[in-house]
Amino acid sequence: MKSKNLNILTNGIIKENPVLRLMLGTCPTLAVTTAAINGIGMGIAATIVLVCSNLVISLLRNFIPDKVRIPAYITIIAGFVSVVQMLVKAFTPAIDESLGIFLPLIVVNCIILARAEMFASKNPVLPSVLDGLGMGIGFTATLTLMGAIRELFGAGSIFSLQLIPESISPMIIFLLPPGGFFVFGILVAVSNAIAKRQGKPVVEHLGCANCPARAACKNATLDSEQSVTECVAKEQPAVEQEEVEAKKEVKPKTKKPAKQPTEQKTEEKEEKVGGGDE
Fold it and tell me: Model pTM?
């Protein structure tokens, strides 16, 4: 039992790192990692929301109706995000200013919603909490590493400690979006190299194996060679067929064309003529 819980905890840190292995949460990863302290702030905030939301969703998993589970999950997540946002504003206003809009956007972070849908809603409380904690640690570690690299090459410092002499001009591009994409690509390449050396599948493209919604998709497979486009293409003919059948079922009532005024006058004249003959 202990080894199983330990595997769940370490799973999100290394084997299924949400950023480098599952390719989730890339928007805040690229946006807020201009400094290492920003990565730590965003990671800790997301970890708190992950652990708390997984805990509550696991407790309520047998009471939430299946048809409204996604709105229920988002409501639970939004409640914890509001609490975390108020705490950050009260105690660390500098981090709140640095994170900006991305702090409240944790509500729609696909990492949190994916873990709620795939794990917390199907497992007991303790494994769900450990899963959220492991995923949060992996997310925080990746953001902090990216922030440290970008801050070092872009500003010559880490955690505001000057490491590169001021006489050497820093590469400002690392603090810009292109630098974020570059560092992100390098880290993904390193992660793939480590996975390949250990005999694990590398992340070549976003297929069904890496899609967080594959559990709810009837056409999803665990084959990483199948792309999301192919999966959607399978569903498209079925959707089109349903639309055609729906149109056939709902047929508009045909109305008789209204008589033209000239036709009505002609008929009245004929009736008068016929009455006079009689």
Answer: 0.72
